[in-house]
UniProtKB/TrEMBL annotation:
Main location: other
Species whose genome carries this gene: Actinomadura bangladeshensis
Name of the molecule in the record: Sugar ABC transporter substrate-binding protein
Cellular component terms per the entry's GO annotation: outer membrane-bounded periplasmic space
Subcellular location per the Swiss-Prot or TrEMBL entry: Cell envelope
Source species, domain of life: Bacteria
UniProt key word Phosphoprotein: no
Matches recorded under PANTHER family: D-XYLOSE-BINDING PERIPLASMIC PROTEIN
Signal peptide: 1-23
Gene3D superfamilies for the chain: 3.40.50.2300
GO MF term (any one): carbohydrate binding
Record InterPro entries: Bact_Solute-Bind_Prot2, Peripla_BP_I, SBP_2_dom
UniProt KW keywords: Signal
Periplasmic binding protein domain location: 41-297
């Protein structure tokens, strides 16, 4: 008897599953499809903690608040995995995709496939060169680089200085824009001399540490300031400076306002970071995704030129903020970083000195 019920249950489950599979293949014309579903592909977990710590939860919240189904996945640094996730999302009937590409070629291939199936795409944070995204949502990334340049100049003063650059991944259009912005500021300071500049493949901290150590050896330690394109790379530089007992003497920049970056700032080992309120970015992208689902024209504030695709992409470009020891508090007050995470152990006193209180 019990066996009978169990097999009946198994059958019912199988039937339900196959029904779901049918419903998910994009052929259904039911209410769900009309409501739309968003697929999000984040790039990796290694280049910056931002993707899993900031972007994922904020995007999740934004779609939930709008009552829109979302599927958020991470390509873990693999373009192949990126493609597989995209294929699965397209099969499951997503109506809009939000992607942060690992490189323009693989991201553009995904966008063309989506387009062929009538699925709209949004470039989230990184512009896909030669892509077909309907919108691009990001920060003003040249300005991000300019904040780094201004920040380094503020920490260095105008004294004669040798500067090195550790740029982001050469496959990330943002990295090009960050470097451009930093050069816009620093190249004008006649007392500064660029003595080395290297892109860091995949934004990997380990590679950054090796590259910086090579620069340090080649320059016989005569480096006075470092443009590091994000907090992960900045921390790699700080680790090599610590090894050489020079941490704190040499200003280093960063980006993303991560817990580690902010702690390096509180320690006096990192000059500044660039804070990009991810919530604003996630909310702006979610808003555009929703307008695409509703078949409405989304609100944009700018255009970004894609020099490969030779087109201007309707965009939302937000404003980055330079963060130094005296305004680390702002990141905590915004809720981007929790005081409890930042002010652990030895950082409790440093937080207090920076006016940050742990509840
Ligand atoms: C950039 C992004 C940065 C940083 C970096 C590494 O494209 O704008 O915020 O996280 O990638 O992931």
């Amino acid at each position: 008897m019990r066996k009978g019920i169990l097999s009946l249950m198994a059958l019912t489950t199988a039937a339900a599953l196959s029904l779901t599979a049918c419903g998910d293949d994009g052929n259904d014309s039911g209410g769900d499809a009309a409501k739309g579903k968003v697929g999000v592909i984040l790039p990796d977990t290694a280049s910056s903690p931002r993707w899993e710590n900031f972007d994922r939860p904020y995007l999740e919240q934004a779609f939930k608040a709008a009552g829109i189904d979302s599927d958020i996945q991470n390509a873990e640094g693999s373009a192949q995995r990126f493609q597989t996730i995209a294929d699965q999302m397209l099969t499951s009937g997503v109506t809009v995709m939000l992607i942060t590409g690992l490189d323009s070629n693989s991201a553009a291939a995904v966008q063309r496939k989506a387009q062929a199936q009538g699925v709209k795409t949004i470039d989230y944070d990184r512009l896909t060169l030669g892509g077909v995204a309907d919108y691009y949502v990001s920060f003003d990334n040249v300005k991000v680089g300019e904040e780094m340049g201004k920040g380094l100049q503020k920490c260095l003063g105008d004294k004669a200085s040798n500067i090195v650059y550790l740029n982001g991944s050469p496959t990330d259009n943002n990295a090009t824009l960050f470097a451009k912005g930093a050069h816009n500021i620093l190249d004008k300071v006649t007392n500064y001399k660029k003595v080395a500049e290297q892109p860091v493949p995949d934004w990997e901290a380990e590679k950054a540490a090796t590259l910086f150590e090579q620069m340090w050896t080649e320059q016989h330690g005569k480096i006075d300031g470092v443009v590091a394109a994000n907090d992960n790379l900045g921390n790699a530089v700080v680790s090599i400076l610590k090894k050489n007992k020079r941490a704190g003497d040499i200003p280093v920049t960063g980006q993303d306002a991560t817990v580690q970056g902010l702690q390096n700032i509180l320690d006096g080992n990192q000059c500044m970071t660039v804070y990009k309120p991810t919530k604003q970015e996630a909310d702006a992208a979610a808003k555009l995704a929703i307008s695409l689902i509703k078949g409405e024209k989304g609100e944009t504030t700018a255009t970004e030129n894609d020099p490969v695709g030779k087109r201007d992409v309707p965009s939302v470009l937000l404003n980055p903020i330079g963060v130094f020891k005296d305004n680390v508090k702002q990141v905590v007050d915004d809720g981007s970083v929790k005081a409890a995470d930042l002010c652990k152990g030895a950082y409790a006193a440093k937080c207090e000195a920076a006016g940050i209180t742990v509840q």
